[in-house]
Structure formats: C-alpha cells, structure tokens
Design a protein that fits this description.
Largest interface: A-B, 47 and 51 residues
Helix content of chain B: 25-40%
Distance between the termini of chain B: 49 Å
Distance between the termini of chain A: 24 Å
CATH superfamily of one domain in chain B: Cytochrome c-like domain
Helix content of chain A: 40-55%
Strand content of chain B: under 5%
Oligomer: heterodimer
CATH topology of chain A: Cytochrome Bc1 Complex, Chain D, domain 2
Order of helices and strands of chain B: HHHHHHHH
CATH superfamily of chain A: Cytochrome c-like domain
Number of domains of chain A: 1
Radius of gyration of chain A: 14 Å
Largest sheet of chain A: 3 strands, mixed
CATH class of chain A: Mainly Alpha
Number of helices of chain B: 8
CATH architecture of chain A: Orthogonal Bundle
Shape of chain A: globular
CATH topology of one domain in chain B: Cytochrome Bc1 Complex, Chain D, domain 2
Amino acid sequence: MPLKPSTSHAKEKEAIALGEGLFWRRHGSMDFACASCHAADGQRIRLQPLVNAYNKEDITKTMTNWPTYRVSHNLVRNNEHRMWDCNWQMRLPDIEYGSDGAIALIAFLTKQAENGKLNIPSMKR
Amino acid sequence: MKTLNTLALAVTLAFSSTGFAADAAKDFTQINSKIDAMVTKSFPAGEGQDLSRLKQDETQKTCSVRANQPTGAEASEIIAREKQNIKYPASGNLMGDWKNGEKLTSSGFGMRIGVIAPDPVAKQKGGNGGNCYACHAVSPKEVAAGNMGPSLTGYGKYRGTSAEVVRYTYEKIYNAQAFVACSNMPRIGHNGILTAEQVADITAYLLSPESPVNQ
C-alpha cells in the first residue's frame, strides 16, 4: 500500500506547509529545530545515523515503517511517539499527541515520502 | 573556454547545496504567525512544562523563517547582536580546568523536561553536560563521536594557546552565532546550558597541551 497523503482539502495543504515551517522552527535553550539534524545527508549524532527529510529515499524508508517495534523501548511505538521523543530530546515541553503541531509534522513528513510502499511489521532501534 | 566556465559554474551550483535539499531558498515569513499559533496550541501548559522555551528570541526567529539561510543583512545583524551577548568568567581566566572540561564534553545530561520522561531530580545536581560528542570528534580515545560539527581532535596542537586563540575558542563555544549566523551549534553559554566558568573549562580541554585532545 503506497503512502498517498491527500491534498484535496485546503486544510490538508495547509497542514503540510505549517508542518514544514515547524520542522525548521528553532526554539529552546539548544536552539534546535527538527531540521538541525534531519535536513542533510550522512549526518550522525554520536554513532546514530540521522534521516534526511529532504532525501526521498531516506525519508521513504523511515515513514513507510511506522508503527514499529522499538528495540530500545521493548514496545511498539507510533509516529506520534517519535514526534514527542524528538521534541523531548530537543529539551522542549511535551508536544501533545494528536495536536495540530504533531499532525502537521507527520503530514509534512508523509508528503516527503509520498508513494513509498508501506513496509510493516518493522523494527527500529 | 566560455563553455568550460559555464560547465564549472553549473557543477559548483549543483554541489553547493546540502543533499537533496537543493530547492529554492525557503521562506516561512508569510505563515509564521500561523506556525506560532499552532505551537501555542500543541504544547499545553501543565506540571513539568516550561512553555518559555517555545518563545523565540530574534535570532531564532530569523533563522527559522529563513530555514537557516539569512540574507546578508540579517546575518550581519545576528552576528553583531550575538557578539554583544558574550559574557566572561568573573576571574577573567578563559583557560579553566581541562579535566573538568573533559567531563563536560562527554556528558549529554540535562534540561529534559515534561511529564513523560524528565531528567531525574537526583541526577540534576550534577549539572548539565556540554554534549560535545553528539556532533564533534574530540579526544582520539573516544570513537563514538557524531559528525555534524567539524572534528576537534588535535585542536590545540595546530593552533597553540595565544591569547587570540584562547579568546576565539571561548567565544565560539559560548556563542557560536557570534561567528556564524544561524549555525546549528547551540549557543551553549548564552542560553545558560553551561556557565562561563564551564565554557572556560572546555576551552582548556581543547587547547591545553596536557589534554588528551592534543596527544
């Protein structure tokens, strides 16, 4: 099943645009945005490789296998959890599950991975 | 020759942008108030939350709407403002204790908040780390280093410890954007992640001839 984010409604288009804006929004004491780590190829935090949201192959590989079994958590996690986790690592307050911000981020990332084929069940670190 | 020059230019342009993000310069100025409103709605107030962290200063605002590609004028403005923000240890000594700097360089602890997984209170007493290894190679003994920033291995060996080098190193760690507008590096001293004295300790760790960084 391919990822086919709908853009037929104006609000859907807006969510993707706002999601990209939030992706680049720098805030908190670390001055981080999602883009600080996820907008260039070949980057690592320590030894952990980082996904580039603007590399079609890279982002497709990531977005097509949520929800996933996270070995480090011993649990199945969804993409909302990953959004929270990233914001928490950026030393921000908790982003609310199902909030406009979390949905807009996922909408943007799904758009970047458009037409990627769903590849579950999956396992990640 | 002209063809060759044109070709060289085309090749330069093709490789000058990072990865696949090679599309036109991004600009979120028009939708920024909507982004701010969305952020306000998406991070609810409550126990353990510090919503002040979502409030951007002028530098963060400019870098966000320009996707880290400020105009020349904006970049000059950021650099001028951030240079004024740099503070120094009361002692005036910018070369601190390299052994403490070593600990601060490898520790990534601190400042995680919220109700789901805040940093444990007991551990907070040890203070924040600088988390330098997340992005930089530093000591040759530590192989698990990130690559988002340049390698700092041998940093002092190649630069010496002149007053200018010490001052530059201290200031760069304290506030990276005093040199590079919209740098990805956190403004570690300015944002209060580390104290001025701790920044001086890391300066010593990078520069001291006795430090493992320079062995």
